[in-house]
């Protein structure tokens, strides 16, 4: 398969990249490292053009509301026959203390927007192959165990076989 991974340089995105490469798939990463600053909205069209013939797109990068917009753009264009896996978060179900850093509140809002976009799209576009995965806390920044992330990806793959939205521990 030809697989795209956004945010592939560290954390879960890197684990996806390595996992699929080890399985023998052709994997292309999209991030600042490969010339795709996903915070720059002008890169959206290029990303859509380059991934339209991919078999799987893993939407992992989260700058701004990029994931939700990417999902809408893929659905609007109906150019992707691929499976889209969007990485959400279990934070959407948690109360965030109002004294918390605004960054965590913004992150939660972005993931709620992604969930809403996903649910709207799968309801309206029956042939659009979109899966939303909500991981539980997987690692601490700077202390990433890629073996555990690889195990999580394998569990995720089993969980999404017949579901379009799942929580994976």
Summary of the model, kept short:
41% of the residues lie in helices and 17% in strands. It has 169 residues and is an alpha/beta fold. Helix 4 links the parallel strand 4 (83-87) and strand 5 (130-135).
Structural account:
The chain is α/β, with parallel strands linked by helices. Helix content is 41%, strand content 17%. It is built from five helices and six strands. The protein has a six-stranded parallel beta sheet with strand order 2-1-3-4-5-6, with helices on both faces. The protein is globular, with a radius of gyration of 15 Å. The two termini are 26 Å apart.
Order of helices and strands: EHEHEHEHEHE
CATH architecture: 3-Layer(aba) Sandwich
Strand content is: 15-25%
Specify the helix fraction band. 40-55%
Protein topology:
Elements: E1 2-6, H1 11-22, E2 26-30, H2 44-51, E3 56-59, H3 66-77, E4 83-87, H4 102-124, E5 130-135, H5 146-159, E6 165-168
Parallel strand pairs: 1-2, 1-3, 3-4, 4-5, 5-6
Helix pairs in contact: 1-5, 3-4
List keywords for this structure.
single chain; 169 residues; alpha/beta; Rossmann fold; 5 helices; 6 strands; 17% strand; globular
């Amino acid at each position: 398969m030809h697989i795209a991974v956004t945010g592939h340089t560290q954390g879960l995105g890197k684990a996806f990249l390595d996992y699929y490469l080890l399985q023998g798939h052709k994997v292309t990463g999209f991030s600042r490292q490969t010339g795709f600053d996903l915070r720059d909205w002008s890169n959206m069209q290029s990303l859509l053009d380059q991934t339209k013939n991919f078999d799987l797109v893993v939407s992992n990068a989260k700058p701004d509301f990029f994931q939700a917009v990417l999902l809408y753009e893929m659905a609007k264009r109906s150019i992707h026959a691929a499976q889209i896996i969007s990485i959400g978060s279990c934070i959407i179900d948690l109360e965030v203390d109002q004294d918390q850093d605004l960054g965590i509140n913004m992150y939660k809002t972005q993931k709620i927007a992604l969930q809403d976009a996903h649910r709207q799209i799968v309801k309206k576009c029956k042939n659009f192959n979109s899966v939303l995965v909500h991981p539980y806390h997987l690692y601490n920044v700077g202390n990433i165990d890629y073996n555990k992330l690889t195990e999580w990806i394998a569990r995720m793959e089993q969980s999404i076989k017949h579901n379009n939205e799942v929580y994976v521990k």
